[in-house]
Amino acid sequence: MTTKQRSDASALLSSPRRLFFLVLAAVFLAEAAVMVVLPMVVAGAEHLPAATIADALLLTLLVAPFLWWLIVRPLRSTAIREQARSVAIVSNAVDGIITINEHALVESFNPAAEQIFGYSEEEMLGQPLTALIPERYREAHRRGLERLRSTGESDAAGQTLEGHGLKKDGREFPLELSISTWKAGKERFFTGIVRDIAERKQAEEMQADFAAMIAHDLRSPLTATMSTATMLEDGLFGTVTEEQKKWLVKVQSNIRNLVDLVNDFLDLSKLEAGHLALATENVDFDALVQNHLDYYLALANNKNISLKNRVDPALPQIRADSRRLDQLLSNLMSNAIKFTGEGGTIEVGAVQQNWSEIRIWIKDTGIGIPPEEIPQLFQKYKQTTSGKTSEQKGTGLGLVICKMIVEAHGGKISVESQPGKGSTFTISLKSGNSQ
Length: 435
Ligand SMILES: Nc1ncnc2c1ncn2[C@@H]1O[C@H](COP(=O)(O)OP(=O)(O)OP(=O)(O)O)[C@@H](O)[C@H]1O
Ligand SMILES: [Mg+2]
Fold this sequence. Notes:
Helix content is about 50%, strand content about 20%.
């Protein structure tokens, strides 16, 4: 390893005698300085006879082996032990360990790295790291290293990242990488611990597919049960008493919740797997909003909430997947209704913000969201403290789906909120989505 030679410990290992004689020469020089030069420069200091000086130097020479035995030997054996320990760790590690210098040239490449990438240590030593990086990521890697060299800052150091590696046979594979930086003298080095995660990714995908399959198979019997309950309630199988009707309505509502949950889950797994193909078309957003407001009118009236359509009449048609936009509005509207109390207001608006952007907002005067809970809002199954205690229970998937739909359209979703005053969810879509 080239890096080893740079450290003091490795100097002790590679040329202990040289080091020892250097120390001895320094001692001789110091003695000579004290015995010969000092009396010349310090007034009144006694000049020593040449024989005394020779005796002193001879004595130093005689005690040299003792000095070796006392100082250098134990230091050397400690260095040998430490080196053997780190070589054993690095060689037997199941993860690839690669060290590069500031010029991104490989300084060490352990056996696990050989296994992962298919190159031998000899092939890689002194070679640029880019050989292990797929072409399309090389520029980002170069820029990252450049930044680190000039500012000493790194986005990657100290973190575990997921990325892609390139094997010797040209195959790409997913990897997990953690990077640490260290210095020897003035030189800086980077050590990366690399793990091939191809199998783990495959297992995750299979698990997600399996879960999606189960969810999918649950939907049909649920829908069938739902229609049976409706037929029962409608009296198709005989007269139903008021009490029975009350319970049938509860059964239907519970089944509806389950169907919604299964649908959300299916959407999510499709979106996560990137399988969601958008059926893009020209959408009359104003009409879409009005449909939703009409749909939620009865619910809103129940809570004395007023609904307002603030879509700019001049808004051009939006180029988007109308079914997904519909789903987006449903999720945001149902949240707004759910989390707005008696006598509140909900406003849905949209405007062409500038030539490159359309802004859509859903604003309510509801319970609001505490600022510290906002960052987790778009994560799966996350509900705010107030959301959890809300009368109408949810699953915490609605906003994740919204985010994925918006991002699938190349847009962004954000929220501003004040507890007790209300929340505004804002979506910006690129104007490439409008016509
Ligand atoms: N308009 C809003 N006002 C206040 N809190 C909100 C609002 N919208 C969302 N939240 C908070 O964010 C949480 C997550 O919302 P999300 O829509 O993802 O889940 P949910 O409504 O609880 O369940 P689901 O939509 O899956 O049925 C909610 O539980 C609630 O705490
Ligand atoms: Mg919701």
